[in-house]
Amino acid sequence: SSGINAEYGLQIHEFKQFGEYLEKWPPEICGQKALINYLVGVVKEVKNTHPDYVYLFKCLALLYEYNEDYINSLFLYIKLDCDRAFDLIGRYNLFHSLEGDDR
How confident is the model at residue 88 (pLDDT cuts 50, 70, 90)? Predict the structure, then answer.
């Protein structure tokens, strides 16, 4: 449904702007597990069916990165074909993470 309005009150079309805020805000104020859990729930509901799902996935990848969950962040960036994946691989030596995982 495109009218997702849960605890944080974000509509699916608002994730682009939300992602822009996430990139500007200090990681310590937005790396909250509750927000990640909320976004994971939204991802399960929306999947790839909405045109703005890319922004939702980018938000989730960034939050995973802020929480030092580099593997989940990496796989989302790869799924999005985002150059940031290469940065994560090099910065956190994640080459081993790419072997044999077919997410």
Answer: very high
